[in-house]
Design the sequence.
Protein backbone atom coordinates (compact mmCIF):
# COMPACT_ATOMS: atom_id res chain seq x y z
CA UNK A 1 0.00 0.00 0.00
CA UNK A 2 1.61 3.26 -1.17
CA UNK A 3 0.32 6.79 -0.93
CA UNK A 4 2.18 9.74 -2.43
CA UNK A 5 1.84 13.45 -3.15
CA UNK A 6 2.81 14.61 -6.68
CA UNK A 7 3.41 18.14 -7.95
CA UNK A 8 3.32 18.81 -11.68
CA UNK A 9 2.65 21.58 -14.17
CA UNK A 10 -0.58 19.95 -15.37
CA UNK A 11 -2.90 17.05 -14.62
CA UNK A 12 -1.52 15.17 -17.65
CA UNK A 13 2.04 15.50 -16.38
CA UNK A 14 0.96 14.39 -12.91
CA UNK A 15 -0.82 11.37 -14.42
CA UNK A 16 2.40 10.36 -16.25
CA UNK A 17 4.43 10.67 -13.02
CA UNK A 18 1.84 8.69 -11.04
CA UNK A 19 1.70 5.93 -13.65
CA UNK A 20 5.50 5.76 -13.72
CA UNK A 21 5.92 5.62 -9.95
CA UNK A 22 2.81 3.84 -8.71
CA UNK A 23 1.65 1.97 -11.79
CA UNK A 24 -1.46 2.12 -13.93
CA UNK A 25 -3.79 0.95 -11.15
CA UNK A 26 -3.07 3.89 -8.88
CA UNK A 27 -6.10 5.83 -7.71
CA UNK A 28 -6.27 9.60 -7.40
CA UNK A 29 -7.50 10.53 -3.92
CA UNK A 30 -7.40 14.26 -4.30
CA UNK A 31 -6.10 17.00 -6.60
CA UNK A 32 -5.86 20.78 -6.25
CA UNK A 33 -4.40 23.79 -8.04
CA UNK A 34 -1.36 25.29 -6.34
CA UNK A 35 1.08 28.14 -6.99
CA UNK A 36 4.69 27.03 -7.47
CA UNK A 37 7.39 29.61 -6.70
CA UNK A 38 10.21 30.14 -9.23
CA UNK A 39 13.32 32.32 -9.31
CA UNK A 40 13.98 32.39 -5.59
CA UNK A 41 10.30 33.06 -4.91
CA UNK A 42 10.13 36.11 -7.15
CA UNK A 43 7.62 34.67 -9.60
CA UNK A 44 4.78 32.17 -9.29
CA UNK A 45 3.52 29.52 -11.65
CA UNK A 46 0.28 27.52 -11.50
CA UNK A 47 0.69 23.83 -10.89
CA UNK A 48 -1.30 20.88 -9.61
CA UNK A 49 -0.82 18.85 -6.46
CA UNK A 50 -2.19 15.33 -6.66
CA UNK A 51 -2.44 12.67 -3.97
CA UNK A 52 -2.47 9.18 -5.40
CA UNK A 53 -2.71 5.82 -3.74
CA UNK A 54 -1.76 2.37 -4.92
CA UNK A 55 -2.84 -0.79 -3.15
CA UNK A 56 -0.35 -3.47 -4.15
CA UNK A 57 -2.30 -6.37 -2.68
CA UNK A 58 -5.46 -5.38 -4.41
CA UNK A 59 -3.66 -4.95 -7.69
CA UNK A 60 -2.10 -8.41 -7.32
CA UNK A 61 -5.53 -9.92 -6.80
CA UNK A 62 -6.72 -8.31 -9.99
CA UNK A 63 -4.02 -9.81 -12.22
CA UNK A 64 -5.60 -11.87 -15.05
CA UNK A 65 -6.02 -15.53 -14.37
CA UNK A 66 -4.19 -17.48 -17.16
CA UNK A 67 -6.88 -20.19 -16.96
CA UNK A 68 -9.60 -17.69 -17.59
CA UNK A 69 -10.77 -18.16 -21.17
CA UNK A 70 -12.83 -15.00 -21.42
CA UNK A 71 -10.55 -12.22 -22.71
CA UNK A 72 -10.52 -9.23 -20.35
CA UNK A 73 -10.55 -5.64 -21.52
CA UNK A 74 -7.47 -3.63 -20.73
CA UNK A 75 -8.19 -1.56 -17.65
CA UNK A 76 -6.17 1.29 -19.06
CA UNK A 77 -8.29 1.36 -22.20
CA UNK A 78 -11.64 1.64 -20.41
CA UNK A 79 -11.80 5.16 -19.11
CA UNK A 80 -15.60 5.29 -18.84
CA UNK A 81 -18.13 4.56 -16.06
CA UNK A 82 -17.07 1.00 -15.08
CA UNK A 83 -13.52 2.29 -14.60
CA UNK A 84 -14.81 5.02 -12.28
CA UNK A 85 -16.79 2.47 -10.28
CA UNK A 86 -13.76 0.27 -9.97
CA UNK A 87 -11.77 3.21 -8.70
CA UNK A 88 -14.42 4.07 -6.14
CA UNK A 89 -14.51 0.50 -4.95
CA UNK A 90 -10.76 0.45 -4.70
CA UNK A 91 -10.69 3.72 -2.78
CA UNK A 92 -13.11 2.23 -0.30
CA UNK A 93 -11.00 -0.85 0.14
CA UNK A 94 -7.76 1.02 0.48
CA UNK A 95 -8.93 3.93 2.59
CA UNK A 96 -9.35 1.73 5.63
CA UNK A 97 -5.70 0.77 5.28
CA UNK A 98 -4.66 4.37 4.69
CA UNK A 99 -6.48 5.59 7.77
CA UNK A 100 -5.07 2.80 9.89
CA UNK A 101 -1.50 3.04 8.66
CA UNK A 102 -0.84 6.68 7.95
CA UNK A 103 -0.11 8.73 11.05
CA UNK A 104 -0.34 11.97 9.04
CA UNK A 105 -3.18 10.95 6.74
CA UNK A 106 -5.08 14.13 7.64
CA UNK A 107 -2.78 16.18 5.44
CA UNK A 108 -3.57 13.86 2.54
CA UNK A 109 -7.33 14.26 2.79
CA UNK A 110 -9.33 16.62 0.62
CA UNK A 111 -10.29 19.79 2.52
CA UNK A 112 -13.97 18.92 3.27
CA UNK A 113 -12.97 15.54 4.69
CA UNK A 114 -10.24 17.16 6.74
CA UNK A 115 -12.93 19.37 8.24
CA UNK A 116 -15.03 16.28 9.09
CA UNK A 117 -12.00 14.63 10.65
CA UNK A 118 -11.38 17.73 12.76
CA UNK A 119 -15.01 17.80 13.93
CA UNK A 120 -14.77 14.17 15.05
CA UNK A 121 -11.48 14.92 16.77
CA UNK A 122 -12.91 17.94 18.61
CA UNK A 123 -15.97 15.95 19.65
CA UNK A 124 -13.69 13.39 21.34
CA UNK A 125 -14.81 10.47 19.17
CA UNK A 126 -12.61 7.43 19.68
CA UNK A 127 -10.21 6.34 16.94
CA UNK A 128 -11.97 3.10 15.94
CA UNK A 129 -15.26 4.94 15.29
CA UNK A 130 -13.45 7.86 13.65
CA UNK A 131 -11.76 5.51 11.18
CA UNK A 132 -14.92 3.76 10.13
CA UNK A 133 -16.84 7.05 9.87
CA UNK A 134 -14.10 8.58 7.69
CA UNK A 135 -14.00 5.51 5.48
CA UNK A 136 -17.77 5.69 4.99
CA UNK A 137 -17.62 9.43 4.28
CA UNK A 138 -14.88 9.09 1.71
CA UNK A 139 -16.62 6.28 -0.10
CA UNK A 140 -20.05 7.96 -0.07
CA UNK A 141 -18.72 11.38 -1.07
CA UNK A 142 -16.77 9.96 -3.99
CA UNK A 143 -19.71 7.83 -5.16
CA UNK A 144 -22.03 10.83 -5.00
CA UNK A 145 -19.38 13.05 -6.59
CA UNK A 146 -20.21 15.90 -4.20
CA UNK A 147 -17.17 16.56 -2.11
CA UNK A 148 -18.22 19.97 -0.72
CA UNK A 149 -17.83 20.87 2.94
CA UNK A 150 -21.59 21.31 3.37
CA UNK A 151 -22.38 17.88 1.93
CA UNK A 152 -19.64 16.14 3.86
CA UNK A 153 -20.73 17.68 7.19
CA UNK A 154 -24.33 16.71 6.40
CA UNK A 155 -23.29 13.18 5.60
CA UNK A 156 -21.18 13.07 8.77
CA UNK A 157 -24.24 13.96 10.86
CA UNK A 158 -26.28 11.23 9.14
CA UNK A 159 -23.60 8.61 9.72
CA UNK A 160 -23.31 9.53 13.42
CA UNK A 161 -27.11 9.45 13.84
CA UNK A 162 -27.17 5.95 12.39
CA UNK A 163 -24.78 4.82 15.12
CA UNK A 164 -27.18 5.98 17.87
CA UNK A 165 -30.23 4.13 19.22
CA UNK A 166 -33.30 4.49 16.94
CA UNK A 167 -35.36 7.66 17.05
CA UNK A 168 -38.33 6.11 18.88
CA UNK A 169 -36.13 5.54 21.95
CA UNK A 170 -35.59 9.29 22.34
CA UNK A 171 -37.69 12.29 23.35
CA UNK A 172 -40.01 10.22 25.49
CA UNK A 173 -40.98 13.37 27.43
CA UNK A 174 -42.77 13.06 30.73
CA UNK A 175 -45.49 10.55 29.97
CA UNK A 176 -46.12 8.48 33.12
CA UNK A 177 -47.76 9.37 36.39
CA UNK A 178 -44.67 8.53 38.44
CA UNK A 179 -41.23 9.74 37.39
CA UNK A 180 -38.11 8.61 39.21
CA UNK A 181 -34.54 9.83 38.72
CA UNK A 182 -31.52 7.92 40.01
CA UNK A 183 -27.79 7.94 39.43
CA UNK A 184 -24.46 8.69 41.03
CA UNK A 185 -23.72 11.21 43.75
CA UNK A 186 -23.94 14.82 42.66
CA UNK A 187 -24.96 13.98 39.07
CA UNK A 188 -27.71 16.60 39.25
CA UNK A 189 -30.75 14.42 40.06
CA UNK A 190 -32.54 16.81 42.43
CA UNK A 191 -31.92 19.88 40.25
CA UNK A 192 -33.08 18.01 37.13
CA UNK A 193 -36.16 16.68 38.91
CA UNK A 194 -37.05 20.27 39.88
CA UNK A 195 -36.57 21.39 36.25
CA UNK A 196 -38.86 18.65 34.92
CA UNK A 197 -41.47 19.26 37.61
CA UNK A 198 -41.44 23.02 37.10
CA UNK A 199 -41.88 22.78 33.33
CA UNK A 200 -44.72 20.24 33.75
CA UNK A 201 -46.48 22.65 36.05
CA UNK A 202 -45.69 25.97 34.38
CA UNK A 203 -45.76 24.98 30.69
CA UNK A 204 -48.21 22.06 30.67
CA UNK A 205 -50.34 23.14 33.67
CA UNK A 206 -50.13 19.72 35.30
CA UNK A 207 -50.95 18.99 38.94
CA UNK A 208 -47.69 17.80 40.44
CA UNK A 209 -46.32 16.39 43.72
CA UNK A 210 -42.93 15.25 45.01
CA UNK A 211 -41.65 12.21 46.88
CA UNK A 212 -38.12 11.90 48.15
CA UNK A 213 -36.50 8.67 49.26
CA UNK A 214 -33.20 10.54 49.77
CA UNK A 215 -33.02 10.37 53.53
CA UNK A 216 -29.29 9.73 53.41
CA UNK A 217 -28.21 13.38 53.48
CA UNK A 218 -29.99 15.73 55.91
CA UNK A 219 -29.79 18.64 53.46
CA UNK A 220 -31.28 16.56 50.63
CA UNK A 221 -34.82 16.72 52.02
CA UNK A 222 -34.50 20.50 52.53
CA UNK A 223 -33.22 20.95 48.98
CA UNK A 224 -36.26 19.30 47.41
CA UNK A 225 -38.60 20.97 49.93
CA UNK A 226 -37.38 24.37 48.74
CA UNK A 227 -38.40 23.54 45.16
CA UNK A 228 -41.73 22.04 46.33
CA UNK A 229 -42.52 25.21 48.28
CA UNK A 230 -41.60 27.44 45.37
CA UNK A 231 -43.97 25.47 43.16
CA UNK A 232 -46.54 25.15 45.96
CA UNK A 233 -46.59 21.40 45.43
CA UNK A 234 -46.96 18.80 48.22
CA UNK A 235 -44.05 16.54 49.15
CA UNK A 236 -43.67 13.28 51.11
CA UNK A 237 -40.45 11.91 52.63
CA UNK A 238 -40.18 8.11 52.57
CA UNK A 239 -37.75 5.92 54.51
CA UNK A 240 -39.22 2.53 53.63
CA UNK A 241 -41.05 0.73 50.83
CA UNK A 242 -44.27 0.85 52.89
CA UNK A 243 -43.98 4.62 53.24
CA UNK A 244 -43.26 4.91 49.54
CA UNK A 245 -46.38 2.89 48.61
CA UNK A 246 -48.42 4.99 51.02
CA UNK A 247 -47.11 8.25 49.45
CA UNK A 248 -47.85 6.90 45.98
CA UNK A 249 -51.41 6.23 47.08
CA UNK A 250 -51.71 9.71 48.64
CA UNK A 251 -50.78 11.31 45.31
CA UNK A 252 -52.80 8.94 43.10
CA UNK A 253 -54.98 11.84 41.90
CA UNK A 254 -52.00 13.91 40.71
CA UNK A 255 -50.95 14.10 37.04
CA UNK A 256 -47.25 13.62 37.78
CA UNK A 257 -45.38 12.63 40.93
CA UNK A 258 -41.65 13.38 40.78
CA UNK A 259 -39.52 11.01 42.87
CA UNK A 260 -36.00 11.89 44.05
CA UNK A 261 -33.49 9.28 45.19
CA UNK A 262 -30.20 9.36 47.07
CA UNK A 263 -26.95 9.55 45.15
CA UNK A 264 -24.73 6.72 46.38
CA UNK A 265 -21.57 5.02 45.29
CA UNK A 266 -23.31 2.57 43.01
CA UNK A 267 -20.12 0.58 42.60
CA UNK A 268 -21.49 -0.99 45.79
CA UNK A 269 -24.20 -3.39 44.58
CA UNK A 270 -25.96 -3.16 47.95
CA UNK A 271 -27.08 0.43 47.17
CA UNK A 272 -28.72 -0.69 43.96
CA UNK A 273 -30.52 -3.43 45.91
CA UNK A 274 -31.65 -0.84 48.50
CA UNK A 275 -33.01 1.37 45.71
CA UNK A 276 -34.97 -1.56 44.26
CA UNK A 277 -36.25 -2.46 47.72
CA UNK A 278 -37.63 1.03 48.38
CA UNK A 279 -39.06 1.66 44.93
CA UNK A 280 -40.92 -1.22 43.31
CA UNK A 281 -40.23 -0.52 39.62
CA UNK A 282 -43.24 -1.29 37.49
CA UNK A 283 -44.91 0.04 34.34
CA UNK A 284 -46.53 3.12 35.90
CA UNK A 285 -43.06 4.38 36.86
CA UNK A 286 -40.99 6.16 34.23
CA UNK A 287 -37.34 5.90 35.21
CA UNK A 288 -34.33 7.95 34.16
CA UNK A 289 -30.70 7.17 34.84
CA UNK A 290 -28.96 10.50 35.39
CA UNK A 291 -25.34 10.73 34.27
CA UNK A 292 -23.06 13.73 34.30
CA UNK A 293 -21.62 14.47 30.85
CA UNK A 294 -18.43 15.53 32.63
CA UNK A 295 -17.79 11.95 33.83
CA UNK A 296 -15.18 9.73 32.24
CA UNK A 297 -16.49 7.25 29.64
CA UNK A 298 -15.30 4.22 31.66
CA UNK A 299 -17.07 5.47 34.81
CA UNK A 300 -20.32 6.09 32.94
CA UNK A 301 -20.09 2.70 31.31
CA UNK A 302 -19.58 1.08 34.69
CA UNK A 303 -22.63 2.83 36.19
CA UNK A 304 -24.78 1.81 33.19
CA UNK A 305 -23.66 -1.79 33.64
CA UNK A 306 -24.39 -1.74 37.36
CA UNK A 307 -27.90 -0.45 36.74
CA UNK A 308 -28.65 -3.19 34.21
CA UNK A 309 -30.92 -4.93 36.74
CA UNK A 310 -33.09 -1.77 37.11
CA UNK A 311 -35.56 -1.00 34.32
CA UNK A 312 -34.26 2.27 32.84
CA UNK A 313 -36.46 4.04 30.28
CA UNK A 314 -33.94 6.65 29.22
CA UNK A 315 -30.81 8.51 30.15
CA UNK A 316 -30.61 12.11 31.24
CA UNK A 317 -27.20 13.70 30.73
CA UNK A 318 -26.46 16.72 32.92
CA UNK A 319 -23.71 19.35 32.97
CA UNK A 320 -23.35 19.43 29.17
CA UNK A 321 -22.38 23.07 29.71
CA UNK A 322 -19.36 22.03 31.76
CA UNK A 323 -17.66 19.83 29.22
CA UNK A 324 -15.77 20.68 26.05
CA UNK A 325 -16.89 17.55 24.24
CA UNK A 326 -19.78 15.11 24.35
CA UNK A 327 -17.75 12.23 22.87
CA UNK A 328 -18.10 9.98 25.92
CA UNK A 329 -21.88 10.60 25.96
CA UNK A 330 -21.96 9.62 22.26
CA UNK A 331 -20.10 6.38 23.00
CA UNK A 332 -22.44 5.47 25.88
CA UNK A 333 -25.49 6.09 23.69
CA UNK A 334 -24.00 4.26 20.69
CA UNK A 335 -23.42 1.18 22.86
CA UNK A 336 -26.83 1.33 24.44
CA UNK A 337 -30.34 0.41 23.34
CA UNK A 338 -31.97 3.33 25.10
CA UNK A 339 -31.86 6.97 24.08
CA UNK A 340 -31.44 10.23 25.94
CA UNK A 341 -34.64 11.82 27.19
CA UNK A 342 -33.08 15.10 28.19
CA UNK A 343 -29.81 16.99 28.23
CA UNK A 344 -29.30 19.52 31.03
CA UNK A 345 -26.93 22.36 30.40
CA UNK A 346 -26.86 24.63 33.42
CA UNK A 347 -27.94 25.23 36.99
CA UNK A 348 -30.98 27.39 36.24
CA UNK A 349 -34.33 25.85 37.12
CA UNK A 350 -36.38 25.25 35.01
CA UNK A 351 -34.82 26.58 31.79
CA UNK A 352 -31.48 24.75 31.54
CA UNK A 353 -32.78 21.48 30.13
CA UNK A 354 -33.96 20.28 26.73
CA UNK A 355 -35.40 17.14 25.25
CA UNK A 356 -33.35 15.86 22.32
CA UNK A 357 -33.66 13.76 19.20
CA UNK A 358 -30.65 11.87 17.77
CA UNK A 359 -30.26 14.73 15.23
CA UNK A 360 -30.33 17.38 17.98
CA UNK A 361 -27.74 15.44 19.94
CA UNK A 362 -25.42 15.07 16.94
CA UNK A 363 -25.66 18.82 16.31
CA UNK A 364 -24.68 19.44 19.95
CA UNK A 365 -21.83 16.96 19.57
CA UNK A 366 -20.51 18.74 16.47
CA UNK A 367 -20.62 22.24 17.99
N1 LIG B 1 -23.30 23.33 35.36
C1 LIG B 1 -24.30 22.53 35.70
N2 LIG B 1 -24.50 22.24 36.98
C2 LIG B 1 -25.53 21.42 37.29
C3 LIG B 1 -26.38 20.87 36.31
N3 LIG B 1 -27.29 20.09 36.96
C4 LIG B 1 -27.01 20.18 38.28
N4 LIG B 1 -25.95 20.98 38.50
C5 LIG B 1 -25.31 21.32 39.76
O1 LIG B 1 -24.71 20.15 40.30
C6 LIG B 1 -24.73 20.21 41.73
C7 LIG B 1 -25.36 18.94 42.27
O2 LIG B 1 -26.72 18.93 41.86
P1 LIG B 1 -27.84 18.08 42.64
O3 LIG B 1 -29.10 18.27 41.89
O4 LIG B 1 -27.86 18.38 44.08
O5 LIG B 1 -27.25 16.63 42.39
P2 LIG B 1 -27.79 15.28 42.98
O6 LIG B 1 -27.52 14.24 41.96
O7 LIG B 1 -29.17 15.42 43.43
O8 LIG B 1 -26.81 15.08 44.22
P3 LIG B 1 -26.96 14.01 45.42
O9 LIG B 1 -28.40 13.99 45.81
O10 LIG B 1 -26.05 14.51 46.48
O11 LIG B 1 -26.50 12.71 44.87
C8 LIG B 1 -25.51 21.47 42.10
O12 LIG B 1 -24.59 22.50 42.35
C9 LIG B 1 -26.29 21.80 40.83
O13 LIG B 1 -26.60 23.16 40.69
C10 LIG B 1 -26.13 21.20 34.94
O14 LIG B 1 -26.79 20.75 33.99
N5 LIG B 1 -25.07 22.03 34.69
MG1 LIG C 1 -30.06 15.04 45.28
Sequence:
Amino acid sequence: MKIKKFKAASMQEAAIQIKKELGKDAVILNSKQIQKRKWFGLSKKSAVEVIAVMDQDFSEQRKPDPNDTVPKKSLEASSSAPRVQEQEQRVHETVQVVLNEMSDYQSMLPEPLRKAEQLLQDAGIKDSIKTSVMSRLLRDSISAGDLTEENVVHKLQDVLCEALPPKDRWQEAISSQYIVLFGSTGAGKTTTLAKLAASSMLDKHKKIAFITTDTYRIAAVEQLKTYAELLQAPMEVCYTKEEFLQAKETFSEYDHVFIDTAGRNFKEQQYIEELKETIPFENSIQSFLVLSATSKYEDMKDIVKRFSSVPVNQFIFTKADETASLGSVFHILAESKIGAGFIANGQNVPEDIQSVSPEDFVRMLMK
In short: Confidence is low (pLDDT under 50) at residues 57-80. The chain is about 45% helix and 20% strand.
